[in-house]
Amino acid sequence: MGEMANSAVEFYPKRAGSRAEANHSGDFGVSLDELRSLMELRGAEALQKIQENYGDTEGLCQRLKSSTTDGLSDNPADLERRAQAFGQNFIPPKKPKTFLQLVWEALQDVTLIILEIAAIISLGLSFYQPPGEESEACGNVSGGGEDEGEAEAGWIEGAAILLSVICVVLVTAFNDWSKEKQFRGLQSRIEQEQRFAVVRNGNVIQIPVADMVVGDVAQVKYGDLLPTDGILIQGNDLKIDESSLTGESDHVRKSADKDPMLLSGTHVMEGSGRMLVTAVGVNSQSGIIFTLLGAGEGEEEKKEKKGRCEVEEAKQDGAVAMEMQPLKSAEGGEVEEREKKKANVPKKEKSVLQGKLTKLAVQIGKAGLVMSAITVIILVLYFVIETFVVQRRTWLTECTPIYVQYFVKFFIIGVTVLVVAVPEGLPLAVTISLAYSVKKMMKDNNLVRHLDACETMGNATAICSDKTGTLTTNRMTVVQVHLNDQHFREIPEPSQVNPNTLEMVVNAIAINSAYTSKIMPPDVEGGLPKQVGNKTECGLLGFVLDLKRDYAPVREQIPEEKLYKVYTFNSVRKSMSTVVQLPDGSFRLYSKGASEILLKKCSSILGAGGETRSFRPRDRDEMVKKVIEPMACEGLRTICIAYRDLPGDPEPEWENEADIVTDLTCICVVGIEDPVRPEVPEAIRKCQRAGITVRMVTGDNINTARAIAAKCGIIQPGDDFLCLEGKDFNRRIRNEKGEIEQERIDKIWPKLRVLARSSPTDKHTLVKGIIDSTVLEQRQVVAVTGDGTNDGPALKKADVGFAMGIAGTDVAKEASDIILTDDNFSSIVKAVMWGRNVYDSISKFLQFQLTVNVVAVIVAFTGACITQDSPLKAVQMLWVNLIMDTFASLALATEPPTEALLLRKPYGRNNPLISLTMMKNILGHGVYQLVIIFTLLFVGEKIFNIDSGRNAPLHSPPSEHYTIIFNTFVLMQLFNEINARKIHGERNVFDGIFSNPIFCSIVLGTFGVQIVIVQFGGKPFSCAPLNMEQWLWCLFVGVGELLWGQVIATVPTSHLKCLKEAGTGPGTDEMTEDELAEDEEEIDHAERELRRGQILWFRGLNRIQTQMRVVKAFRSSLYDGIEKPESRNSIHNFMAHPEFLINDFIHNIPLIDDTDIDDESELLPATPNRNNNAIESNVHHLTRPTDHIGHWTSFPRQPCPLLSLETSL
């Protein structure tokens, strides 16, 4: 898997292999090829091969010069030798695109290509000198005060255009390159984050996955993603999900004596164990697949595999299975494919924001195209009419080049209008803004795995958070205990406890917890002891130490190998049990788990003197009332510890768990405190102020959950809220048949604040229910936190999935969008801030960009129509384009976020990018700039007392007049860039300007370059140097922008009824509920085409259905008078039955594609029509209930052949 750390070291598997062949017969007792062929076997075959060749796993271990108990020594030379012999644990990454490739890609831009062609033609023609004499005959076309030197300079314009194109291309390529580099840095950071537990010198240490070598002994536990291939040495109840390699979704049981083969890229779903690493990197199973694909497609494969295992994982989930019920095996593959697509598609597609922007850019581009075409046509017509009609000249062959030069000039003007109109800076701005945010978010403990997650977070309206570790510190301590019929409110002295009971407690805790959980001395003097491993178990071990006992001697006496059977903890059991064999041959089972669950299995309890007495249901209820509920109401987690003695002869049936873990004896019940993180209540308050609802979803007891929620401020006394348990929640959302109904969820979720004792399935159901809900006018955007393997489906389903960096399992990280490196809820609030900031940055940029676009296009267009020449020349336009696209996107997209962002409600998903206030600003500033520029254009020469630049002939020297226009224009943009920093109509546009050095440097830099261009640009930039007075006037007009901005801010937006917002997302009418559920991605056209096939096939199917229905209708006409169950007499009746609602069809017809339901929604109601072509014409026959018979036939309630026909098809 891609989890193998992709380091950038070159790797030549062939060479390593061949060299290895030579030297290891001497070094190690086994060769690379032997190991490779061994890892290809499974189950019994593999065991047989190990026995034949090595005797047993121990033998193989010795040949690899390793030890099953102590692992490898930490000798660097030895590790190096192993890496030489068997390879290193990474897969060489695909080479990044070179800078030249990126340049080539940037050159593919259509507008740039057009410009290049125009420039080349212009260059070519400028070198063509027509014979001098005849030029009189061509009229004053070329006339004017042109001397030799000027004519020579004809090539400059073409060259300058080419030069500026090169500039634009280089800047774009550089941006792409740095983005790619950042992304790779991020990738490698994610990979370095991944560490794995191995045994070296008998100590368990965490090392980066890339450092693992063949011969290492690794500890595997629930939730790991295996980084290498290996052979199981010892395992407890180990179950592996191998779907990423085999596609089989069932969990595979692994044990040292039946099937010991563990493969890289597979997930540990249950249990724990130790394995001997036998193949790493390119030689491991997933490495081999990678090599076959070539790392290039490897990336794809990773996505594909990821998609697949998530689906598999989702499939085992009850509720998800509920959604997939109607799938019969016949088209399982089809669905699998679609699910796979669903799992992959959203991540790589455009995010909501990019969707809106692309749409906007296309609209603006179209408008620009029209404008530029009109400009060219008007210029050409005017020239032709002026020259050949008004002056009545004839077209002479020798004049052709001169005329052509004119046409080329007009064409160039047209193209420049287009270049300025097309906001190619938009995608750039998004990328810069996102990349910048992602880099900064690393400092705020958010490791972003998918760029668009960052911006989606800004729209979040709901956060479903875990409790343990996210809202709380995840530092568990036992503070109360009930044992020997006494309730101790603090930890008792050992003398207060019956010695036998004390012994029992110590053994039950020491043995029945993962041996990887332990308590280490503090790092700093006087600090708290360090908890390593499962925090709940550490809390219990801490309890043993508080009782002045030690758990280590107990574990030494009964090492892990001697544990007879382990039932590891999982979300279904909610308990963990371990069986040990006693010296007399009988067995003892120790169990610990959620108190209300485990007490149900207890039939006796240790009484006051340490003696066993019976524990009846009546006693249990009393205990719940007197002990468990009071503890839970104080926010403590209650855990019951129990044991049971089992006979040694006959040996119990271990696989039958229900009969083993029952009839227990309760030893004690402990209350574990997990204090709320000090910064959480404030963070939650911020969320609520920002219009985000926080919900707590936890596996804990409802009273504990409610107490913690109150401490955090998730629920406030006097509010109207719901706290439910998983069971209760499920009862309320399912109908009589046990199917989940959206209407029922809609009744619950708006008030639900705490969901306790919930399974991962409940979490997924809740998230899906909130996302699919249409109760509120805004579609909810849901963020979810998760750490367990079983949270995968919910993390995938959510708009943004947060995985815990410290406590999270690899599976959860793999399914998430953002990893919280400090597991802290307040980091989520930071993510919201950054997300909103991205959105605002884009809006700022848009506001600035559109003002420039509108003005530049109108100036070029009207100027060209009135004076036959654009006041802004091609090269100048390209410079303006560079300022406003590339630089402005850098300057405005890197504004740091402020706390003020959290004071407003989230923008919705369909909120327009350009609000009314922004529209007001754009139009207001546009008007100011146009007035100034046209004043300068038509009366500028009188004001400044200079020569007019209008109607200048071809190749005439640049005029001061037009230079002033260009200069004023650029300076107005510069000052307007400062205005654009605020988009909500704030007055102080300088607020916080110095906190953004990039902005300041870009504004000053642009100003500097502008001075150079005007004073020394000369012919290429069509600029004449200006004197001091003219410069001051230009500056004065520019500063006027700031003052004018204040005037605009004074006009209340509400009075401007005529303004329209722009840049909305897809309208609600175009959205179907399934498309919403599909994360509402905008699908590319190519993707649409792909999906047409599926839809055609669905249409065919529908036609068969319609024909069958017509036949049915005829059949029912025999019973004309009689009501048959298949037919309903009124359209209302038909619509009233819940089974016939369109959404249900969507779930029952898995062959239709989610994203295209909007095109097909007409097909869904059952329409008994006479012509089976009605489907082609997409007519809604629901509106005319006149069949041959006047009956409404509809899908019957009992399963009919029609549906089964459809599924078998």
TrEMBL record:
A single cellular component GO annotation: glutamatergic synapse
TM segment ranges: 369-390, 410-436, 922-940, 998-1018
Residues forming coiled coils: 1069-1096
Gene Ontology biological process: regulation of cytosolic calcium ion concentration
A Pfam family that the UniProt record links to this protein: Cation_ATPase_N
All residue ranges annotated as the Cation-transporting P-type ATPase N-terminal domain in the record: 51-127
UniProtKB keywords: ATP-binding, Calcium, Calcium transport, Calmodulin-binding, Cell membrane, Coiled coil, Ion transport, Magnesium, Membrane, Metal-binding, Nucleotide-binding, Phosphoprotein, Translocase, Transmembrane, Transmembrane helix, Transport
SUPFAM superfamilies in the record: Calcium ATPase, transduction domain A, Calcium ATPase, transmembrane domain M, HAD-like, Metal cation-transporting ATPase, ATP-binding domain N
Principal place of residence: membrane
Lipid metabolism recorded as keyword: no
CDD domains: P-type_ATPase_Ca_PMCA-like
Keyword NADP: no
Protein's cellular compartments: Cell membrane; Membrane
InterPro entries linked: ATP_Ca_trans_C, ATPase_P-typ_cation-transptr_C, ATPase_P-typ_cation-transptr_N, ATPase_P-typ_cyto_dom_N, ATPase_P-typ_P_site, ATPase_P-typ_TM_dom_sf, ATPase_P-typ_transduc_dom_A_sf, ATPase_P-type_domA
GO-annotated molecular function: ATP binding; ATP hydrolysis activity; calmodulin binding; metal ion binding; P-type calcium transporter activity; PDZ domain binding
EC number per UniProt: 7.2.2.10
UniProt membrane topology term: Multi-pass membrane protein
Catalyzed reaction equations: Ca(2+)(in) + ATP + H2O = Ca(2+)(out) + ADP + phosphate + H(+)
Purpose: Catalyzes the hydrolysis of ATP coupled with the transport of calcium.
Similarity section: Belongs to the cation transport ATPase (P-type) (TC 3.A.3) family. Type IIB subfamily.
Protein name, per record: Calcium-transporting ATPase
Lineage: Eukaryota, Metazoa, Chordata, Craniata, Vertebrata
